[in-house]
From TrEMBL:
Keyword Isomerase: no
UniProt KW keywords: Heme, Iron, Membrane, Metal-binding, Monooxygenase, Oxidoreductase, Transmembrane, Transmembrane helix
Protein name, as recorded: Cytochrome P450
Transmembrane segments annotated in the record for this chain: 12-32
Domain of life: Eukaryota
InterPro entries: Cyt_P450, Cyt_P450_CS, Cyt_P450_E_grp-I, Cyt_P450_sf, Cytochrome_P450_monoxygenase
Annotated signal peptide: none
Protein family (similarity comment): Belongs to the cytochrome P450 family.
Entry cofactors: heme
Pfam families: p450
Database matches in PANTHER family: BENZOATE-PARA-HYDROXYLASE (PTHR24305:SF29), CYTOCHROME P450 (PTHR24305)
Length: 461
């Protein structure tokens, strides 16, 4: 029997073939005319944005970039138009006054008003930061300490109940509630009470993200109000700037955007560092014992207030915080800038003007030449850090756009961990494992399982 071929698909097949060939020719053209063609990278990454997009979408970008550096060297392409640098030569030149942020930052807005982090050019960011920085001065931090302690002590009261009943708590969730309570109080004097020792249905309904919390705040009308605030808070400092120097004053919309930024940037980051530190200590009883001994020696009377003045002098606690920030940097990955006029030369590689270029703390923090046994959690390594260790330590980024809340974040970490590990022994239940705690990164990191269950057992004095 004669078979009749169906030829109706031919035009589609021909146009698909022509398009594919056209695309291939275009790729080859782009490849040979790309001013970055001297910079190595995987074939897939230098010809298409898909690999970077895929890795970012799956939360694996930081780890993927490390693997690319291992294969292709310190200056690589991670997309046809994006360069990533692993050499510490880049810290000062990429994060400088001359470079501006890329369009990747445009999305950091609150109701269309740009937050400070979204301001791409150095000049407007400088003005906004000038308005914000007084709120984080040393004097202000001193005034903030009792607020942090107030929330923490309330939280510890609640922790004690769990200790008595022998239950574990999910630190991923509850540490976030705690830092959110602290930051909301510091920012605009509102006691939100996510982490109070009673069942809190609002908090229970909003377990997953801060954005849920933020919209909740907005709906319940807790977005900054000027009246009846008990003390000088970050909002009041911004208002002071407006009175003293109206030219530098933020508009009311910008102030609200900044309050939201502070809530967002200041809670997850600190909470997740405290969580990863607690996990590390729970899995390393020897390290935890050393920390407890240092705290017990510094504060022999358990009822004595654990002041920041004293906590900040404890080298082992300092080392614990730094190791947590090093291994589990809350914002670990590629922070994009545009190469300045005249371009940059890093590790003998020229990066032309306007190129999207960045580094990631995740890579520098794992450089075995700077931090021997980089995945080992060793607080002692910070007792006498080398200049290279200091230069490559980038949890708060570097230069004129580094974190505004660094001192507050550092202070909170020391107060939280100091109080918890003075009074409690922290233990891992079987479900909390290296795999459940593996990093997933969507700008900030979180544990893969979305939980960090730990037991907190009150110590008997
Ligand atoms: C452990 C705690 C923290 C870590 C590790 C951290 C880390 C960072 C990093 C890496 C950046 C730079 C982001 C970039 O260039 O894309 C940043 C920016 C920022 N952080 Fe933090 N942060 C922490 C706590 C805080 C706190 C407590 C606040 C405020 C209450 C805060 C407010 C900000 C703001 C406003 C920016 C934007 C600065 C700018 O763009 O000029 N952060 N932070």
């Amino acid at each position: 029997m004669v078979q009749v071929k169906d030829t109706s698909d031919y035009p589609y097949l021909i146009s698909a073939a022509v398009s594919s060939i056209g695309l291939l020719v275009l790729q080859i053209f782009w490849y040979f005319t790309n001013p970055l063609r001297h910079i190595p990278g995987s074939w897939a990454a230098i010809t298409s944005r898909l690999p970077l997009f895929y890795e970012s979408f799956s939360g694996n970008r930081a780890q993927w970039i490390i693997e690319q550096h291992k294969r292709y060297g310190p200056v690589i392409r991670i997309a046809p138009n994006k360069v990533c640098v692993a050499s510490d030569e880049g810290v000062k030149s990429i994060y400088s006054n001359k470079t501006m942020k890329s369009t990747a930052y445009d999305g950091f807005r609150y109701h269309d008003v740009k937050m400070c982090i979204a301001l791409r050019d150095v000049k407007s960011a400088h003005t906004r930061r000038k308005g914000l920085l007084p709120a984080f001065s040393h004097q202000n931090l001193v005034e903030m300490e009792p607020v942090i302690r107030f929330h923490l002590e309330r939280f510890l009261g609640w922790l004690e109940k769990f200790s008595d009943s022998g239950e574990y708590i999910d630190c991923f969730k509850w540490f976030r509630y705690l830092t959110f309570d602290v930051v909301a109080d510091l920012a605009f004097g509102q006691q939100i009470g996510w982490a109070i020792p009673v069942h809190n249905p609002a908090a229970e309904d909003n377990q997953s993200t801060n954005s849920n919390m933020l919209s909740e705040l907005e709906t319940v009308g807790l977005v900054p109000k000027r009246n009846d605030r008990p003390r000088v808070d970050i909002l009041a400092r911004l208002e002071e700037v407006a009175v003293k120097n109206p030219k530098e004053a933020l508009s009311p919309e910008e102030i609200i955007a900044e309050m939201m930024e502070v809530l967002n940037a200041g809670s997850d980051t600190t909470a997740n560092t405290a969580m990863f530190a607690s996990y590390e200590l729970a899995t390393r009883p020897d390290v935890q014992k050393k920390l407890h001994s240092e705290l017990a020696e510094a504060f022999p009377d358990p009822s004595e207030p654990l002041t920041f003045a004293k906590l900040s002098q404890l080298p082992y606690l300092d080392g614990v915080c730094r190791e947590a920030l090093r291994i589990h940097a809350p914002i670990p990955s590629y922070l994009e800038r545009l190469a300045p006029e005249g371009g940059l030369t890093i590790a003998n590689t020229f990066i032309p003007e306007g190129t999207i270029v960045g580094m990631q703390a995740y890579t520098n923090h794992r450089d075995p030449n700077v931090y021997p046994d980089p995945l080992g959690f060793s607080p002692e390594r910070w007792f006498d850090p080398t200049p290279e260790m200091k230069l490559n330590f980038l949890p708060f980024s570097a230069g004129p756009r580094s974190c505004i809340g660094m001192n507050l974040g550092n202070m909170q970490l020391r107060i939280h961990l100091g109080h918890i590990f003075r009074a409690y022994e922290v233990v891992c239940p079987p479900q909390t494992t290296p795999d459940s705690m593996a990093h997933v990164e969507f700008f900030t990191i979180r544990p893969k399982s979305g939980a960090c269950d730990l037991y907190f057992r009150k110590r008997k004095e």
